[in-house]
Specification:
It is built from one helix and nine strands; from the N terminus they run αβββββββββ. The protein is mostly beta strands and 120 residues long. It has one domain: Immunoglobulin-like (Sandwich), CATH 2.60.40.
Length: 120
């Protein structure tokens, strides 16, 4: 027995499955470091990671749009209220401190909004 399915039904099915596959929310891995941004601070203010290891930051904001930037590592990600961002990168092999700053002007004390990534 052969079932003849019209081509437009197959196209519709393919499109539905393709769109549905992209509808799930990217969830942070269980070992992601939670980072909360708010005027004018990062919590935690120091983030410790191991040299050469993958890093996942689950970044959220409690008030306005902010941006998490680590200029020396080329990390730059905006963060919208109500929409956490998963920021992933590999920690550098070079141990030391790397400045984290807000990359979106968020108010009069924007320039004071900073934290440290400490690579051990």
């Amino acid at each position: 027995m052969t079932i003849n399915i019209p081509r437009y039904c197959l196209v519709f099915l393919f499109c539905f499955l393709f769109v549905a596959a992209g509808c799930h929310k990217n969830q942070a891995p269980p070992n992601a470091i939670k980072v909360v941004m708010k005027k004018y601070s990062f919590e935690p203010s120091e983030i410790h990671v191991k040299a050469g290891q993958p890093v996942a930051l689950d970044v959220s904001t409690t008030d306005v749009q902010h941006g998490i930037d680590i200029p020396d590592l080329g990390v730059k990600q905006s963060v919208q209220p109500g929409r956490p961002a998963l920021v992933t990168f590999t920690a550098p092999e070079k141990k030391g401190e790397y400045k984290i700053q807000c990359g979106v002007i968020c108010g009069p004390h924007h320039d004071d909004m900073a934290a440290k990534l400490i690579v051990e």
